[in-house]
Every structure is written in structure tokens, then in C-alpha cells.
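Chain A, query sequence.
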Amino acid sequence: MSRKKKSDNLEEDEPGLDISSLIDVCFLLLIYFLVTTTIQPREQDLKMALPSDSSSSAPLDLAPMFIRVDQSGKVWVNAGKAGELVESDPNIHHLPELTSRLTTYVSTANAGAQEPVVQVSVAGEAEQQRVIDVLNCIAGAEISAVTFTDLVDRL
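Chain A, predicted structure.
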């Protein structure tokens, strides 16, 4: 009757894991990395005035784009001495260079939160089809503010 099970003694003989040395090593590594790291200077510590991220409150005024159609059907951009010939062949109706200029002008106007404005000057002897080609390019660039003027040559 004094039989005892040996299974009770087996539980006491299981090996234990002593993690105190592991904790010591972790603390030593932590101290080592804290001591050896260099702290990067912040922007405030540089004693330098850097530009702010706020833009000016008044946007720049965007001048209207001038387009001139002369009597031979040539299309010019800009007025007066700054005028540039962009389309010289009156038989080409899709006007690729003018379309490119208008697209650039519209993107510049949109970047400045302004409405693109185009002023068109047409010589009295110009063909009507050429004027329609220019207006199609303007409509393709989604410009709705278009005016006709005769002041472009005088500028």
C-alpha cells in the first residue's frame, strides 16, 4: 500500500530555462547601440532660414494668347515683333504646332488657377476655312474665352 507513482518525481526533474543571462545580453546590446549612434541635426538646429511651403497669395496674371491669321493663310502666335510663324501651309487643316502651343498655354493657365484667354486677329483677305481651322484647334484645347481683335498688329 505504500506504492507511489514515479510520475510525480518526473515533473520535478524537468530542466528549466534560465533567461536572466539573455536579458543581460539584451540590455548590454541596447546600451551599446544607444552610445554608438550619432544624432542627426534637425532642421531647426542648422540656424538657416529655409523657404516655407506656402505660396504667395496673389497669383501671377497670365497674358492672353494672341493668334494672327494673315491673308495668305499663315498662322502666327504672339503679337508684334515677338510674333512666331507656327503654321505656314494653308492646306493642312489639323494645325499640329498650334495645337501644341495651345495645350501648353492651357496647362500653364490651369497651373495658375486662371482661365485661358485667346485673342484672334484675322486679316480681311484670309480664307474662312483657315479661320475655322484655328477655331477648331482652340475648341480642341477646351478654351472657351475667345475674342476677335484687330489690335494685334499695332502692339
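The chain has a mean pLDDT of 80. The CA atoms of residues 38 and 60 lie 45 Å apart.
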